[in-house]
Design a protein that fits this description.
Layout lengths: L4 H17 L5 H9 L3 E4 L2 E6 L5 E5 H5 L7 E9 L3 E2 L5 E12 L3 H5 L1 E8 L14 E3 L4 E8 L8 H21 L7 E6 L5 H8 L11 H20 L3 E5 L6 H8 L11 H9 L9 E5 L2 E3 L3 H4 L23 E8 L4 E8 H4 L2 H18 L3 H10 L3 H9 L10 H5 L7
Parallel strand pairs: 4-10, 7-9, 10-11
Antiparallel strand pairs: 1-2, 2-13, 3-12, 4-6, 5-6, 6-7, 8-9, 11-15, 12-14, 13-14, 14-15
Helix pairs in contact: 2-9, 5-7
């Protein structure tokens, strides 16, 4: 049954009343709040500080697209997933396929692939063959591996954690396997944050239902990401995480707790920065606007190297001071798409002003030309597991029955569009 015109009219009347009542916030208020981010403190703790002065700036898209690329050799990593399959016997499986792309195109880099199948069953009586370790395929251009999350560690969030383990392990292992391809005249662009944030969250939460911190694969993933940062810090090779859908809330939550700040209307940090960076004048998407770099100290990104961390029993190894692993970022607004991007990098790289400037110009150059970095789009295309391929993978499980619910039938992803 579809909506009739009378239904649409009723909804439109409601929408107009809501729109009239909730106009966009004036950017003047957000600009005043931005000045507070030079150093944002709460309850005696430094939550955020700017690297250099606080500012917002803009560049002309056409002019920026015609400038010389400051880092012409770009390498990007991305992973594609089947998303978890859940079977009637309680088994959950997710396949992740990770690939690198480069600009200019390098077919040897493109041919390298890493595939991880992450599995979980709450029953120790279910036997999953994980004995072979890495298996080569495609004449050594690819590696594949089955891993099993230890039984009993997950009582809830099972599909999400199985997916996280598969994705983060495949991507980090693929970067480590191929990082001899990264040179000083190149930049690595990771799809999403530079750290496995969702997994790290569940490793620090004290929960009886999610005890993923005790799984060796989770600890291996964290060590992998430290090793990736160490390689780039030691060799001074630029590295960023390009976050296309930033969902952080730490700044907004901190501002809302403070007594010296009036009403905060935004739900997420990205909404606040969008308000800061939006131009009141109609410029027809001619400009890209962006902020200065910020540092978020005292997070668990640097604490994972500490001796008192609750993250794990065994200490992780690292080559640089803890502060160098702190998260830094700047925000970019692309008016033509009305989207915000968050660009992350470890403090140990961007504490150098020249490095910071080079990365900023590189990001703005790539956005001006392609909307998002072209190499990141290439990596997404290489790594993506298409729907038809997902169907083929499901068909391989001939002896198991998918755990199907009514909504899986009603909203089936296999329906013809």
């Amino acid at each position: 049954m579809t909506l009739d015109p009378v239904h649409i009219k009723a909804i439109s009347d409601l929408a107009s009343r809501i729109e009239f009542s909730a106009r966009d916030e004036d950017t003047e208020n957000s600009s005043e709040i931005l000045d507070l981010l030079h150093e944002l403190w709460y309850d005696g703790n430094l939550v955020l500080r700017s690297l250099g002065r606080v500012y917002r700036s803009k560049v002309d898209i056409k002019k920026m697209s015609h400038t010389q690329d400051p880092i012409p050799r770009t390498v990007s990593c991305d992973g594609g997933s089947t998303n978890p399959f859940t079977f009637d016997n309680g088994l959950s499986v997710d396949f992740c396929h990770s690939a690198l792309a480069s600009t200019p195109t390098d077919l040897e880099i493109h041919s390298k692939r890493t595939i991880v199948a992450a599995t979980y069953s709450p029953s120790s009586s279910v036997i999953i063959d994980t004995t072979d370790g890495w298996a080569d395929f495609d004449n050594g251009s690819g590696r594949s591996k089955i891993i099993r999350i230890q039984p009993g560690l997950l009582q809830t969030r099972i599909s999400r954690l199985v997916h996280n383990i598969a994705m983060y392990l495949a991507e980090s292992e693929h970067i480590l396997w191929t990082m001899d391809q990264f040179t000083e005249d190149s930049i690595l662009i990771m799809d999403g944050p530079i750290y496995p944030k969702q997994l790290m969250y569940w490793m620090v939460v004290d929960s009886d239902e999610v005890q993923i911190r005790y799984d060796p694969h989770a600890r291996k993933i964290l060590q992998n990401y430290i090793d990736i940062m160490d390689h780039h810090l030691e060799n001074r090779i630029p590295l960023i995480g390009f976050v296309k859908n930033p969902e952080d809330r730490q700044i907004i939550r901190t501002l809302r707790k403070r007594d010296d700040i009036c009403d905060i209307p935004w739900l997420m940090d990205a909404q606040f920065f969008k308000s800061v960076l939006k131009s009141k004048r109609s410029e027809n998407g001619r400009y890209i606007t962006y902020t200065n770099w910020f540092m978020q100290p005292n997070q668990f990104y640097e604490d994972i190297m500490g001796t008192t961390t609750p993250l794990m029993e065994d200490r992780l190894t690292h080559r640089f001071p803890k502060e160098d692993y702190s998260l830094t970022f700047f925000m970019v607004h692309v008016p033509s798409m009305n989207v915000m991007f968050k660009i992350e990098s470890p403090y140990g790289l961007v504490k150098d002003e020249d490095m910071r400037e080079t990365i900023t110009k590189k990001v703005l150059h790539d956005i001006a030309i392609n909307g998002i970095p072209e190499t990141l789009s290439k990596a997404d295309t290489l790594a993506k597991i298409r729907l038809v391929e997902r169907r083929q993978i499901i068909d391989q499980f001939k002896e198991l029955t998918m755990d199907t619910k009514y909504n899986d039938i009603r909203w089936s992803e296999f329906e013809d569009e």
